[in-house]
Amino acid sequence: MSVGEIIKRYFFITIGAILMGIALEKFLVPYEIIDGGIAGISIMLSHLTPVPLSVLLFVLNVPFLIIGYKHLGKGFAFSTLYAIAVMSLTTAMLHHSGPFPDDKLLAVLFGGMLLGMGVGLVIRYGGCLDGVETVSILISKKLKASVGNIIMVFNVIIFIIAGFVFEWSSAMYSIVTYYLASKVIDIVVEGLNESKSVTIISQKYEEISQEIVERLGRTTTLMHATGGFSGQEVKVIYCVVSRIELSKLKSIVQLKDAQAFIAVESVADVVGGSFSRQSAH
Asked: For the chain, how big is the Rg over CA atoms in Å?
């Protein structure tokens, strides 16, 4: 990795960590709204004990950083340590500044968006801001479960505990914040042009395929298949489109054949072919 790439990486990790610190101290903590993972545990412990949130955020994450260093690599562990240190310092500096919006719902919306942007930037540039994510990656390798599902189980438990520590309304606001933040994280990490693979089964495959090529400018692939129940031969259309183009593709298919079968899946990456060239325009 060149010096320029390292500077760029740590610049965006710094921005992401600062954004999360702002989200916690200015929007969420003053209204007893928590984040998931170690941050959520830290917020509850800072409420129940005299230990500052900034100290808890750093200290509670250290054991997970050690695990990450042993199993996920030195670069990942150091980036995560740096991000958590910047986040903790930011919360310490803003601790006595008071909440920004004088409205709990606005705090949820702005806090969730800033939280998602911050976490998303750090993840995108090779680190993380919560030890639960590190442990979830390791558990997923042993249990063959998705990282997202493991994190969700951890956070459900944390939000239930938050209902007892604060109020149940705070737990519900926390869930809404977490959901909003997770959506923003997806956008930041994957971008607005996240790719979707689409599988279409229709008797009007030729017309649909032609419309996709002409109206979206996307190439399609026709595959031969056999119905498992009917035993009849069918033609399957396969293509990859951006998130923004997906709704237009659905409209094209449904106008041609309202009974067509459409299956959509997220694509982690697309390399080669005409897709990347068209997306760049």
From this structure: 23
Distance CA 56, CA 100 (A): 23
pLDDT value of position 5: 86
Give me the number of domains the chain comprises. 2
> What would the two tokens of residue 193 be?
């042009």
Q: Are 13 and 122 in contact (CB under 8 A)?
A: yes
> What's the rounded Cα separation, in Å, for the pair 101 and 223?
55
- Given a contact cutoff of 8 angstroms between Cβ atoms, the answer to whether 142 and 91 are in contact is no
| Low pLDDT (below 70) residues in the chain | 1, 68, 71-72, 141, 146-148, 190-194, 268-281
Q: Say how far apart CA 144 and CA 138 lie, in whole Å.
A: 10
Non-local CB neighbours of 83 within 8 Å, separated by 6+ positions? 13, 14, 16, 17, 122, 127, 128, 129
pLDDT digits (tens, 9 = 90+) for 159-197: 999 989 888 888 899 999 988 988 888 778 766 556 889
CATH number, domain at 206?
Answer: 3.30.70.120
Q: Are 136 and 72 in contact (CB under 8 A)?
A: no
> What is the reported pLDDT for 20?
94
Domain extent for 242? 195-279
| Same domain as 214, residue 154 | no
Whether residues 158 and 215 share a domain: the answer is no
